[in-house]
Amino acid sequence: MDVFSEVSHHRGAHGLSGGVLEGSVSLGCDPVTWKAYISCLVGLVVSFAPAWVREVKHETLGTLARGLWGWHECELALSLLERGGFATMGPLTEFFSVID
Fold this sequence. Notes:
The chain is mostly helical and 100 residues long. The longest helix has 20 residues. The termini are far apart. The relative contact order is 0.13.
């Protein structure tokens, strides 16, 4: 089993994405490629499968949103949290306090 398969088995695909955004998981590809992949994937999910977002753990949504925010993908981060429902109000208020 390769490292990617092992990590995704234990953390799940969402946790893997969040771990890479936090910097706790390292991938063997160019960071620019990874950023483009994650930004496009999250953008597609937010736009075309918003019901999927509510199925993701709210901690993972917060981690993804913080990572996107750090990449200056602020609108995408807010859209992700908005579609996360009531459980993501904590991270959402964090973002609004930063904006003020």
